[in-house]
Amino acid sequence: MTSDVMKMFEEEIERETVFEDVSKASPDYVPERLVHRREEEEKLRDVLEPPLNGGPRGVLITGPVGVGKTAMTSKMGRELERKAGEEGPPPPLR
């Protein structure tokens, strides 16, 4: 059994990369679906959509290191950019 483990380890070491998709190792990578974040996504959407209609809003996102704050805000930013592009520029602030 130990020789099987060593063989497997050696095969992995000899591979060019352990990643199937190296882009996913980038700090800028954000998955399309954030696991266990549906409720947070919905709350953030509710807060961030009014600015698209001319109303000012802000949000403070806090939490421990590594829980996905950057991934969540990056994903929501991309969604808002896409939606703003589809609907055109927002009306002036009131």
TrEMBL record:
Database matches in Pfam families: AAA_16 (PF13191)
Orc1-like AAA ATPase domain: residues covered: 33-83
Region Disordered, annotated ranges: 48-94
Gene3D superfamilies: 1.10.8.60, P-loop containing nucleotide triphosphate hydrolases
Record's compositionally biased regions (Basic and acidic residues): 76-86
Transmembrane regions listed in the UniProt entry: none
Entry-linked InterPro entries: AAA_16, P-loop_NTPase
Descriptive protein name: Orc1-like AAA ATPase domain-containing protein
Organism, scientific name: candidate division MSBL1 archaeon SCGC-AAA259M10
The organism's taxonomic lineage, starting at the top: Archaea, Methanobacteriati, Methanobacteriota, candidate division MSBL1
